Amino acid sequence: xxxxxxxxxxxxxxxxxxxxxxxxxxxxxxxxxxxxxxxxxxxxxxxxxxxxxxxxxxxxxxxxxxxxxxxxxxxxxxxxxxxxxxxxxxxxxxxxxxxxxxxxxxxxxxxxxxxxxxxxxxxxxxxxxxxxxxxxxxxxxxxxxxxxxxxxxxxxxxxxxxxxxxxxxxxxxxxxxxxxxxxxxxxxxxxxxxxxxxxxxxxxxxxxxxxxxx
Length: 214
Fold this sequence. Notes:
The protein is mainly alpha-helical. 57% of the residues lie in helices and 5% in strands. It has helices spanning 11-19, 26-41, 45-50, 80-92, 110-123, 133-146, 151-158, 163-166, 168-172, 175-187, 193-212, and strands spanning 56-57, 62-65, 74-77. It has a 3-stranded antiparallel β-sheet with strand order 1-2-3, with no helix packed on it. The radius of gyration is 20 Å and the shape is globular.
């Protein structure tokens, strides 16, 4: 069974979404902090809704996931920007065992989060069909590309039991494939530059079509 390539967003698109919540109101501040946290850490939706208040260490820029998917514990790091949002949110959030919670202190629902990110995406002019998990995929692809294709560390960050799951991002990143073929074709004695460029254009078009088939 062929696995579909997940939809991802560019860093610019993610930032547009994070910019949408109004941090002057409690739910807006919470949602902005939540979105920024996922973009920083690659957290799962389940990590976010189950994150306990006592497991968020703002001063250390760290959140601890206890028994995440597959029973894996891991530490998630976040940026100074997210830490600032967390500090502001802590001052106005209701008492609850869950760090991200409703105004009544209850656990957030997955349906609410799905509708929330879709609403902000549309406000930002993004029409791709996305969910909150899209931010995790977007973080993973961006990390893979900017870390020099460091799959081992990405596997640990995402909490994958198998490196095979993490290898999905190898297939999603077409840059190394195209660069490799450019080098290969360029060294072939009987290949003209025109033929090389045409084959690269064909490959880029094929990859574009695959990414659109989601």
